[in-house]
Amino acid sequence: MEKFLKPTFQKIIKVEEERTSNVAKFVVKKLERGFGNTIGVALRRTILSSIPGIAPFAISIEGVNHEFQAFADTKEDIVEIVLNLKNLIIEVDENLINVDEIYKFTINQRGEVVTAGDIEAPIGFKIINSDLVIANMVGKAKMNMTIYVAYSKGFKTFEENRIFVKEALGGLSNIIAIDSNYSPIERVNIRISDVNPGESRVFEELTLEVETKGNILPEKVVAFAGSILKNYFKAFDNLEEVDLTKQFVEEIEEEEIDSHLQMSIENLNLSVRSENALKAAGISTVEELIDRPVSSLQAIKNLGDKSKNEIIQSIQDLGLSFKSE
């Protein structure tokens, strides 16, 4: 019988451009047909819904009793201040805090503009977007604000947080509950492509791209999501144990995917005509070249059939393939 191949997991680092630490791309190779979508969708949904983070859930401002009250000390009304605070990005060191506790951040600032950099946070917390404008003050007014934050996951409405305030803070007066987005994720994209189309046995390659808000590394996000799924699958451990050792005996040949994808097209030993045509189309690396279907080569100016076949052969010689149609 055809045996399952043991998949490999690799991080792709693009050297031709400055990649910030909050964006990363990962590749899982040699997956059986259908498993790219199965694994990719599960990871994407888990990352979007279940990665915990820190966020404000309530605030209190000296002289303010509720969110619809007029506030003469700022140019913004309370609703606008709340909307600004919802954009606050906080990094947390889980080793220095108790994830089950509620923490208080404070602002005691006199000046024209109050920003996130004016927030005083306990040890273990760091404000990422310190230039975020929270309020513009009127005259020499002073902002005295307490921001209540918690460690959780998902999105909580202000109605849910209003209940939480009563339960956790004992229904203290003058506390305004706000919406909370605890997710540290900006976006997650998955792409499934055939590794060896046209052959008798087609494998899939899963590409996972993760962008965070900058308060957690993408590598930790993927590891966290994998651990969540693994713990859910442990629910099936009580069923009959099946030994799959013999079904996963084929090994995958190690491929230098990072170096191949980072390779400049100048190193493909193409003709001058082919190389110039690709550069004119804005293609400078192998990854940029294969991140498109092979049919797209026809649309590149000054690239004839001979040059097209030359490029395809060069990519195949590297053990790579173009994106599926």
TrEMBL record:
Q: Membrane-spanning regions, if any? A: none
Task: Relate the protein's function as given in its record.
Answer: DNA-dependent RNA polymerase catalyzes the transcription of DNA into RNA using the four ribonucleoside triphosphates as substrates.
Instruction: Tell me the subunit arrangement.
Output: Homodimer. The RNAP catalytic core consists of 2 alpha, 1 beta, 1 beta' and 1 omega subunit. When a sigma factor is associated with the core the holoenzyme is formed, which can initiate transcription.
Q: Which family does it belong to?
A: Belongs to the RNA polymerase alpha chain family.
Q: Give the record's GO biological process terms.
A: DNA-templated transcription
Q: Where is the DNA-directed RNA polymerase RpoA/D/Rpb3-type domain?
A: 23-239
Tell me a GO cellular component: cytoplasm
Q: What InterPro entries does the record point to? A: DNA-dir_RNA_pol_insert (IPR011262), DNA-dir_RNA_pol_RpoA/D/Rpb3 (IPR011263), DNA-dir_RpoA (IPR011773), RBP11-like (IPR036603), RNAP_asu_C (IPR011260), RNApol_insert_sf (IPR036643)
* Keywords annotated in UniProt: DNA-directed RNA polymerase, Nucleotidyltransferase, Transcription, Transferase
Q: Which GO terms describe its molecular function?
A: DNA binding; DNA-directed RNA polymerase activity; protein dimerization activity
Q: What is known of its domains?
A: The N-terminal domain is essential for RNAP assembly and basal transcription, whereas the C-terminal domain is involved in interaction with transcriptional regulators and with upstream promoter elements.
Which protein are we looking at? Answer: DNA-directed RNA polymerase subunit alpha
